[in-house]
Predict the 3D structure of the following.
Amino acid sequence: MKAVCWMGKGNVETLSVPDPVLLNPHDAILKITRTAICGSDLHLYDGFIPTMEAGDILGHEFMGIVEEVGPAVTNLKRGDRVVVPFTIACGSCAFCKKKIWSACDNTNPNAQLMEKAYGYSGSGLFGYSHMMGGYAGGQAQYARVPFANVGPLKIESDLPDEKVLFLSDIFPTGYMAAENAQIQAGDTVAVWGCGPVGQFAIASAFMLGAGRVIAIDRIPERLALARGLGAITVDYSEKDVDVLTALKDLTGGTGPDGCIDAVGLEAHSNELQGFYDGVKTALMLETDRPIVLRQAIQAVRKGGTLSIPGVYGGLLDKVPFGAAFGKGITMKMGQTNMHTYMKPLLERIEKGQIDPSYLISHRITLDDAPAMYKVWRDKEQQVTKIVIDPWATAVQADASRDPRVARGGVQ
Amino acid sequence: MAVTSSTLTEKPHAAELPRAEGASVMVDGWYMPPPEDKDGRLWQRTTALVQAEPVELYEAWRDLRSIPLWQEQVVSVTETGASTSHWVMRTDTSSDKTVEWDSEILADEPGKRIAWRTIGGDVDQAGEVIFEPAPKGNGTFVTVLQEFKMGKLASMWETFVGRNPKQAVIENLRHFKAFAETGEIPRTQGQPHGPRGTVGDMKKGMYGEKIPTPPGSSVGGVS
Ligand SMILES: NC(=O)c1ccc[n+]([C@@H]2O[C@H](COP(=O)([O-])OP(=O)(O)OC[C@H]3O[C@@H](n4cnc5c(N)ncnc54)[C@H](O)[C@@H]3O)[C@@H](O)[C@H]2O)c1
Ligand SMILES: [Zn+2]
Ligand SMILES: [Zn+2]
């Protein structure tokens, strides 16, 4: 089959590799019909997440048709259409029983690597480094899905793939981010980052009763999408804009009740702080660039909540913990507990409350992926979300492009 | 002003610490640290929370013939008497080199505890596993204490397999737990990938990925 492989920092190739086979009794093999590139994939592309090996198949956002199931899989059969959560959970350990699915004890074959770095290991993830299990990912024509009784969500309606694909990660991630912000009716919520996770966090914050959402980014088309959802936008790159002042101004000097960091460890900054983190990460004295985290801790109101869906990987420098303590804030974070959210969010899509496909700007083939990783990283071509049809030829992919994509003159 | 304080280990008013028995992590309300490595004897204690009854887990551990399903590199365990058995273990991931030894069960308390020691062969070790109900019915704490001499097994293990023998004790309990809770052992060996190159291959060794994952209930396809 064809698969998108990580071949080193900044180097992704589409290669021919063997097809996956069943390895364990709870495995299923999926023929992938749609898969996407995520902001999290950029942390791998840019070399921020350790323990990648050349040849690793990327991708953790995918769906498809069940091709084959192992002898212990009881709730799926060949031909079923499913969306797969990016975190792998066993369903039987103490953490799965508590529904903290992304902390599953039994799905990371390399748990000892994560134990050394973090004290304890989280669940395995698809296509996301060997520390997270070393599972082959879904930017491919087929994938092996372990614990198929527990993860995959069956799609029984005739909703098109594009409307349900984002149940594999970014919609539940944005939703959990909003839930973690502990929103009370009428609250003001600030969201840093208007990428896919930020977009779904904004939409979900409104669903959960936020009175006002303030969205922060610098990319015009992403800010426009956020305004389309009803948010007030702040372009942090404008030279007369200071984010902390803006957030005070927009909250009567109080600060937002909830702050959501939907940017994570590769935050961009044109200030001295960004330069400082750039130098330190280049020298390996610091692993992450916590620019947004610092800002959000400063910005949140006294007793407010900070929700962090953005990924951090290691050691952070100059985090204003005194401010966090001084204001008595709550912080909630982590990989999404996918299995809790997929079904209720599918229901919202079925009821027409949201159509997640509005985010898609590019529809591509597997062969296009290496070039598109660069576009995605550099936020060129007004990219907002890239979806791959693993079976399309170049011509078909082009023909299937949604006319809405023409907005703002893309392509 | 200089503040002088007595060293942390100097506790003039403390009562004498109780002595730990076997694998226990606490005695009379005191936390017991694991034994220290000394005089060529190494110790590893490790513990896991497992969602099953103590008696089920005791029975799974006591079933000697199924040990090769979840212990790394163990090829076979054959019962040779009421409390004795013969063990064969692969020491090299790329050839069929083995070490063999005989083992004797010293204590066997159904649902609670098993203790063993070797009685001849290439290996000199002893161990104990205890099964204790976790607080409030939240499953079972399985605690293993393994003692071994830096002998042939330990050094071959590390040289050929690239796994520190202490880490092997930890990994084996992890496999036992996964097998007991889910009926399988998580694995990625045998899945597709692109060319690894020399660096990728080196990393596999470094990350302990060259040690074959025990079979558990695997359905084949494993390379
Ligand atoms: N917790 C989880 O389980 C989970 C799941 C998926 C993604 N994520 C993480 O969420 C984050 C966002 O993902 P995405 O797919 O939306 O990525 P993305 O790269 O498309 O979006 C990030 C956005 O942040 C903006 N940004 C950068 N610096 C900023 C700053 N200083 N202030 C405000 N905005 C800034 C960028 O312009 C971009 O639009 C990533 O870190 C990703 O790894 C986490
Ligand atoms: Zn993702
Ligand atoms: Zn679990």
